[in-house]
Design goal:
single chain, alpha/beta, Rossmann fold, 6-phosphogluconate dehydrogenase C-terminal fold, 3 domains, eight-stranded mixed β-sheet, about 45% helix, about 15% strand, binds nicotinamide-adenine-dinucleotide, binds prephenic acid, Prephenate dehydrogenase, tyrosine biosynthesis
Length: about 375
């Protein structure tokens, strides 16, 4: 081992590290992939479902898997709770009944923090330290099939230690999380929920409401769906997120969300007034202000809407073209994460959307496809 991770084995008193992941889905699976195969590390996955445990091992995401919380938790140095927000407290309660390894670190990846941090304080009575966590990266996809070694790379990873959290435990967790290549940010759990409510939960709700509004119009005229391409697609990717994961997040953060909805309604009302009054300068000013703030967002950072790098390719309408493009990319060792035909443009035979998890892959793919005379748009 070398460089920034050379102090890794100092994370425990012996050179073996057991990491238990409860819920090996998109986030749990991505964490497992970051830890698995590192020297001395054993990653055990937990699922309530025996067929899922078999799948985790068969896909090579974990070293072993079990349906027993007790077996997964036994002697574990780090325990990651990666289940839906609505189940986090149940897992804390189960762990609180078990003989956990002294000084072990229990953390979670839930999209809300205040309630679980408060609830998990009880783990200290078992000699464990709870530190709330939230990797600010994700996808509209879910399940272990969507897990990726690179998901958290360059993303922010929020930790919410309290004043009672031993600093050496925070330090230990931070050192472990270096394997994810995410950037750690520490904040208070309540502040986390306010801010993440605004920059993540509200956009998900708006995307869903917008899609449902348009779907309603589409019921009486199919042209809505057929013409909905550029802007609509950009702002609504996250509307395809997992319904149960988001049910739990929004219910858990409901007080914050109710205030944010009211503020959103005021923003829309402001637009309504500007339009009623025919105030063109006022409308333009709204766009100027938004553009200015948006231009200051971190570029191509994982997390929020930009976690996937995409390009669009005009494709002639003949059988085999999709396979041909996928093969060209594969032969050039470019990792394609998704490929989708979009039938929204009437003027060209078809448009293929290619998605990548690395900006590098996107750049290589556009260069390659352009060199092969394809029309590529960003
Ligand atoms: N999806 C995202 O973009 C994202 C990003 C950051 C954090 N998170 C948080 O990560 C956690 C997991 O989300 P995910 O996107 O990985 O979801 P996922 O559906 O991909 O994975 C959830 C895991 O929990 C298990 N699970 C589901 N319901 C369960 C239940 N009732 N009891 C026990 N286990 C159950 C599933 O088998 C799966 O292994 C959530 O708390 C979510 O808020 C999600
Ligand atoms: O990129 C996405 O699909 C996401 O929704 C990721 C996202 C976000 O809103 O930024 C979603 C939920 C999380 O808790 C953290 C990250």
């Amino acid at each position: 081992m070398s460089g920034e991770f050379s102090d890794f084995t100092a994370l425990t008193n012996d050179s073996r590290i057991k990491i238990a992941i409860f819920g090996v889905g998109l986030i749990g699976g991505s964490l497992a992939l970051c830890f698995k195969g590192k020297p001395g590390v054993h990653v055990v996955g937990h699922s309530v479902n025996p067929s899922s445990t078999e799948k985790y091992v068969a896909r090579g995401v974990v070293d072993s898997a079990t349906t027993s919380v007790e077996e997964a938790a036994k002697d574990a140095d780090f325990l990651f709770l990666c289940v839906p927000v609505g189940r986090l407290e149940d897992y804390v309660d189960e762990l609180a009944k078990l003989p956990l390894k002294r000084g072990c670190i229990v953390t979670d990846v839930g999209s809300t923090k205040a309630s679980v941090v408060k609830h998990a304080a009880k783990l200290s009575a078992r000699g464990a330290v709870f530190i709330g966590g939230h990797p600010m990266a994700g996808s509209e996809r879910s399940g272990v099939e969507a897990a990726s070694l690179h998901l958290l790379e360059n993303a922010f990873y929020v930790l919410t230690p309290t004043e009672d959290t031993p600093p050496e435990s925070v330090d230990k967790l931070e050192r472990l999380l270096k394997w994810t290549r995410a950037h750690i940010v520490k904040t208070d759990a309540v502040q986390h929920d306010d801010i993440v409510g605004a920059i993540s939960h509200l956009p998900h709700m708006i995307a869903v409401a917008l899609v449902n509004q348009i779907a309603g119009y589409n019921d009486s005229n199919e042209l809505y769906r057929r013409l909905a391409a550029g802007g609509f697609r950009d702002i609504t990717r996250i509307a395809s997120s997992d319904p149960l994961i988001w049910r739990d997040i929004l219910l858990n953060n409901r007080e914050v969300m109710l205030k944010l909805i009211r503020d959103w309604q005021s923003e829309m009302e402001r637009f309504a007034v500007l339009l009623e009054e025919g105030d063109g300068e006022g409308v333009a000013e709204q766009f100027r202000r938004a553009g200015q703030f948006r231009s200051q967002l971190p570029e191509r950072r994982k997390g929020m809407i930009t976690s996937i790098y995409e390009c669009y390719v005009d494709v002639p309408d003949h059988p085999g073209i999709i396979g041909k493009i996928a093969t060209e990319l594969g032969q050039a060792k470019i990792n394609l994460s998704n490929l989708q035909i979009i039938e929204s443009r009437e003027d060209v035979p078809g448009v293929l959307r290619l998605s990548f998890q690395q900006s590098d892959d996107l750049d290589k793919a556009t260069d390659l496809l352009k060199s092969l005379q394809y029309d590529v748009h960003m």
